Amino acid sequence: MTESSGSRANGPLSFDLTQRPWIPVLWRDGTQGELSLREVFAQAGSLRRIVGDVPTQEFALLRLLLAVAHDALNGPRDIEDWAHLWADDTCFAPFPAYFDAHLARFDLLHPRTPFFQVADLHTARDEVFSLNRIVADVPNGEPFFTSRMPAVDRLGFAEAARWVVHAHAYDTSGIKTATVGDARAKKGKVYPLGVGWAGALGGVFVEGDSLRETLLLNLVAADTAGLRIDAEDRPAWRREPCGPAAVADRHPSGVRDLYSWQTRRLRLHFDEAGVHGVVLGYGDPLAAHNLHTREPMTAWRRSTAQEKKRGEALVYLPREHDPSRAVWRGLASLIAEREVAGQGAEAASSLRPGILEWVARLVTEGELPRGFLIRTRVVGAVYGTQQSVIDEIVDDQLAVAVRLLHRQDREYAQQAIDAVGDAEHAVTALGDLATDLARAAGAQPEGPRTRARERGFAALDDPYRIWLRTLADASDPDEQRTIWRHETRRIIDRVGKELLAESSDAAWEGRIVTTPKGAVWFNSAYAQGWFRRRLNDALGLSDSFGSEADEQQVSGADVVETDAGLPAEGARS
Q: Is the link from the previous residue into 192 a cis peptide, with omega within 30 of 0?
């Protein structure tokens, strides 16, 4: 019997997720393997992290582990309760007894209560569908980043279990074949009801040096301000098994409920060798608006459009990740403290993730030292074609000293946020240079400008991450910001020189361009002069790049009419 095969002891097949290896892990020494639920918690201090077949699977599995941890520990109730867990290396000792108490609900193949499934789920025609429907790295119609082409014919039980968890979290939307008993069916189909719950989020969590630290850092206390966790909060395996129909008027009771939310109805079809098919339908829908008091693992944005549409005074929606932006460029949404609106004041336009609010509290109340370093991980799915396929998966991380979250050290966080603004302004100047070079050559500017901006941000990516790690140790955050501005100018000036060297002969020769202030002889030398002035202005640096020739270019040496001024506004951001 292989590790991924089912077991049979004079009865039906069984695959006990508490005993059988199925969760991929990375040990702190760099080796990889698979562990059971019991083993993951028993060895959490020796593990670097869990991994997944795709990053979104890691996020889904982590949320499952957090639901288990919250429920098995029945807490933490408050920050003092959490501190005892953090200090106790044996804090996961109650877990074996917990799994013993709920053993039947963690059997992937149980005949009556299969894990995260509906035992007798079937369509009117008893159809069994391809496993492509739950394996996210083989999207329907167009496989990507996979060696499994053109279809997934069979899965071992361990991998199938991971994709079941992932389906509830990230399954695509679209029309699905109706299952018998689902009252939402219309002519044998159920029309789109949205993606899995985690798919609606811009997922955020905090990583420590071990899986034990990661689990505890994301284990928010029940008394956390701004987060509602009801006394009856419990995960899916401590609720009545789902039937094919949606549970009427279901609202999440807390994090245990949300982390195991049954957004789908599934049933695996299998034999002794593994899983060969699936039945998949919609489960319990969950509207995303104003769940910021329940869901801590995403940032939130205020939506005035939805406020008007819904007739509500305040609507917050999850802030999804932009695959074109590295995580540091959205730093403000992660570390900016939640604004508290006073009487008559405008509500906050965005809210940072509750997980980071929780870590900020741990720092402020002295449970974590200010120099403690965390990795903020962001994970999310980007859907395409009416959310019926996953187009991209976002996975990025940023090392941040918890000092940046401390309410008494707000100047450090503000300088980190403002430094991102420095990068944005400098890259805008670089984009203007690309626009000017294109105009000098008589070409369309949109493509060159976009590529130049991408190139500029890529050049600043590693330097900003390194600078951010040093910021918390600096005695003077203002001085560190000045250092960053000079480094940004050096890097973007270098990229600008590369663009100039790569520009065409037509750009070097130039041409006359009409601007609102007159005709300008537009060439690469003219573009270079304005680029350097814009770059200095963008970064608030008054010292020049040092050459009189530069100043002469900017002063209008190549301008047909000396009062021509800057290029037309269409060439600027």
A: no
**Domains located in the chain, CATH noted:** 1-407 (no CATH), 413-571 (1.10.132.100)
User: How far is 1 from 18, CA to CA, in rounded Å?
Assistant: 18
Are 314 and 341 within 8 A, CB to CB?
no
Distance from C-alpha of 93 to C-alpha of 32, rounded to nearest angstrom: 24
Q: What is the pLDDT of residue 409?
A: 79
Residue of 460, 446, 454 whose CA lies nearest to 539: 460
pLDDT digits (tens, 9 = 90+) for 52-110: 999 999 999 999 999 999 999 999 999 999 999 999 999 999 999 999 999 999 999 99
Give the separation between CA 160 and CA 276, rounded to whole angstroms. Answer: 10
Rounded Cα–Cα distance for residues 148 and 453 (Å): 36
Integer CA distances (angstroms), 253 to 106, 147, 234, 259, 460, in order: 22, 40, 8, 11, 43
How far apart (Å, rounded) are the C-alpha atoms in residues 190 and 212? 41
Give CA–CA dist 470/464, Å, rounded. Answer: 10
Residue 347: pLDDT band (50, 70, 90) is confident
* Calpha distance 563→573 (Å, rounded): 21
Dump pLDDT digits (tens) for 365-398.
Answer: 999 988 888 899 999 999 999 999 999 999 999 9
Q: Which two tokens stand for residue 275?
A: 């899983």
